[in-house]
């Protein structure tokens, strides 16, 4: 989608400079402390599994049979937030998002208990035979409010937008202003940034009734004064960008 900008040489020069010159104030605190939501101690894990094409149905069936039984037990301080198959994007892919109430101690407790759980051990072994590759990240929730009621069920498809900004603080400052333009359509679900795994990544989870609704909402943003300016300044900050359209499995709390 083309960026909206005024014509003229000064604007062009300013845009070119923004590609190479990044002015970031010195900080005396960790980026995670500046960007994370302070009201919660929750830690999130994002799992991405690339499944053998011929095994995707069996993989989904296995996850739907085993995961609820294990992780709905009260003595596991974690919860499945959502589980999806990628519809558009990399194919034959499963995406899982977990929340650990209590941060790293909760994560360690869950991992310790799962290592002693024979059913989970067998599940991992069977699941491993179906996978081509897998990766995960530990995430913190952004301090910027993405939604008025985050993590509530939706109807339809989901989009996971993954960006790698060159400078997290500068990008975060712009996004804090930009999200105001997208909060009146109720499509925002949650925002996260990576803490362990591939670093300097930001993930935004959105929900839409269908792809046409997504297109209509995105087009409407361009008619709001100020949106084009924010896009103009944030796009040069992003080094990598990936978008997935995902469909939830039956066991997914987010539907």
Describe the protein's architecture and organization.
- The structure is a single chain.
- The N terminus is likely disordered.
- The chain has an eight-stranded antiparallel barrel with strand order 1-3-2-8-5-7-6-4.
- The protein contains eight helices and eight strands.
- It has 255 residues and is α+β, with helices and mostly antiparallel strands.
- Strand 2 and strand 3 form a beta hairpin.
- Helix 3 runs antiparallel to helix 5 and helix 6 packs antiparallel against helix 8.
- The longest helix is centred in the first third of the chain and has 16 residues.
- The chain has two domains: 100 residues, Alpha-Beta Plaits; 108 residues, Alpha-Beta Plaits (2-Layer Sandwich), CATH 3.30.70.100.
- Helix content is 34%, strand content 29%.
- Belongs to the NipSnap family.
Please provide a brief summary of the model.
This is Protein NipSnap 2. This protein has 255 residues and is an alpha+beta fold. Helices cover 34% and strands 29% of the residues.
Helices and strands in order:
Layout: H1 9-20, H2 31-35, E1 43-51, H3 56-71, E2 78-88, E3 93-100, H4 104-115, H5 118-128, E4 131-141, E5 157-165, H6 168-178, E6 188-196, E7 202-208, H7 211-221, H8 227-234, E8 238-248
Antiparallel strand pairs: 1-3, 1-4, 2-3, 2-8, 4-6, 5-7, 5-8, 6-7
Overall tally of structural domains: 2
Task: Classify the secondary structure makeup into a structural class.
Answer: alpha+beta
Described by strand count, sense and barrel closure, the largest sheet is:
8 strands, antiparallel, barrel
| Tally of separate helices | 8
Radius of gyration: 20 Å
Shape: globular
Low-confidence stretches: 1-25, 27-31
CATH fold name of the largest domain:
Alpha-Beta Plaits
- What is the arithmetic mean of pLDDT? 80
List SSEs in N-to-C order. HHEHEEHHEEHEEHHE
Just give the CATH class of the largest domain.
Alpha Beta
**What fraction strand?**
25-35%
Strand order of the largest sheet: 1-3-2-8-5-7-6-4
- Tell me the distance between the termini: 29 Å
How many runs of DSSP E, i.e. beta strands?
Answer: 8
CATH second-level architecture of the largest domain: 2-Layer Sandwich
Helix content: 25-40%
Domain NIPSNAP: 165-253
Keywords: Autophagy, Mitochondrion, Transit peptide
Main location: mitochondrion
Family: Belongs to the NipSnap family.
């Amino acid at each position: 989608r083309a960026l909206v900008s005024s014509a003229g040489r000064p604007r062009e020069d300013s845009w070119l400079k923004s590609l190479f010159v990044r002015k970031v104030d010195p900080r005396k605190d960790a980026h995670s402390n500046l960007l994370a939501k302070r009201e919660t101690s929750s830690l999130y894990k994002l799992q991405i599994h690339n499944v053998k094409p011929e095994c995707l149905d069996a993989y989904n069936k296995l996850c739907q049979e085993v995961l609820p039984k294990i992780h709905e037990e009260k003595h596991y301080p974690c919860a499945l937030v959502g589980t999806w198959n990628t519809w558009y994007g990399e194919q034959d892919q499963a995406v899982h998002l977990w929340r650990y109430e209590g941060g790293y101690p909760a994560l360690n407790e869950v991992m310790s208990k799962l290592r002693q759980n024979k059913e989970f051990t067998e599940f991992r072994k069977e699941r491993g035979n179906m996978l081509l590759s897998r990766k995960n990240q530990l995430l913190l929730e952004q301090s910027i409010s993405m939604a008025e009621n985050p993590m509530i069920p939706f109807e339809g498809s989901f989009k996971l937008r993954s960006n790698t900004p060159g400078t997290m603080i500068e990008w975060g400052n712009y996004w804090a202003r930009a999200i105001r333009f997208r909060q009146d359509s109720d499509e925002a679900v949650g925002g996260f940034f990576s803490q362990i795994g591939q670093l300097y990544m930001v993930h935004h989870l959105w929900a839409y009734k269908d792809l046409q609704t997504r297109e209509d909402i995105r087009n409407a943003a361009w008619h709001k004064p100020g949106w084009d300016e924010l896009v103009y300044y944030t796009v040069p900050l992003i080094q990598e960008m990936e978008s997935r359209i995902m469909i939830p499995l039956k066991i997914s709390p987010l539907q």
